[in-house]
Design brief:
This protein is mainly alpha-helical. It has 11 helices and 2 strands. The model is unreliable at 3-13 (pLDDT under 50).
């Protein structure tokens, strides 16, 4: 009887968590005209962080929660809040990797966070290599590493001494343009800044990719 009750409780908890995860995604992706991306993210976070009936803190989907915290970094001016969001995002992505070592999206996000924190090519390289290894043809990884490429170009740091990094980022730019699910997002990244676009176009080594990006 006790075993049956435990099984019922666990099953109910899983169903409850699945509902919270679904609702958080709906909230985050359906910002109305009067809402804001920031408030949507905060509302979604509140659904993924809660206390169970025993008062224990619960976290639903660490990767998704980390992603919501990550998005808040670009809509916050308070330095203390920025540090709080950054630390939570980094912690949750790191915990995701401990549980799922092949989670390429979390690895790509760790590369982005590490760049934001250090602007060090050497420090992002291990994350980029692993994200590429496990997400070589993942359209979400294409978008994340394309964003990283744009940030690196924006920094004007030389990258020629790390050919593997440039090769990997070039791969995700090219395949990001080929995949219909990531094409528009990658195009938006490439076209964000005209001077950066000229540098990024040099990484697009195929005729088709150059045409897709409208590199003149």
């Amino acid at each position: 009887m006790i075993l049956l009750l435990c099984c019922m409780f666990v099953s109910g908890q899983r169903l409850h968590n699945a509902y919270r995860e679904y609702e958080s995604s709906e909230l985050f992706n359906s910002v109305d005209a009067e809402g804001s991306d920031k408030q949507a993210a905060l509302n979604a976070i509140n659904l993924l962080e809660y206390q169970d009936i025993f008062g224990h803190p619960m976290v639903v989907n660490k990767y998704l929660l980390g992603y919501y915290y990550y998005t808040l970094l670009f809509d916050e001016s308070d330095t203390q809040q920025l540090a709080f969001y950054f630390q939570n995002a980094y912690m949750l992505f790191s915990q995701t990797i401990k549980q799922e070592p092949t989670n390429a999206k979390a690895l790509a996000n760790l590369a982005l966070l590490t760049w934001l924190n250090t602007q060090s090519l050497d420090e992002i390289l291990p994350y980029v290599k692993q994200a590429h290894q496990f997400g070589k043809y993942n359209f979400r990884v294409h978008v994340k590493l394309s964003q990283l490429a744009e940030w690196i170009v924006e920094s004007q740091q030389p990258i020629a001494h790390l050919p593997s990094l440039q090769e990997i980022l070039g791969h995700h730019l090219r395949f990001g343009l080929e995949d219909r699910r990531s094409k528009q997002a990658v195009l938006d990244i490439i076209n964000l800044n005209q001077s950066n676009k000229e540098a990024i176009c040099q990484w697009l080594t195929t005729t088709d990719a150059l045409k897709q990006a409208r590199c003149d």
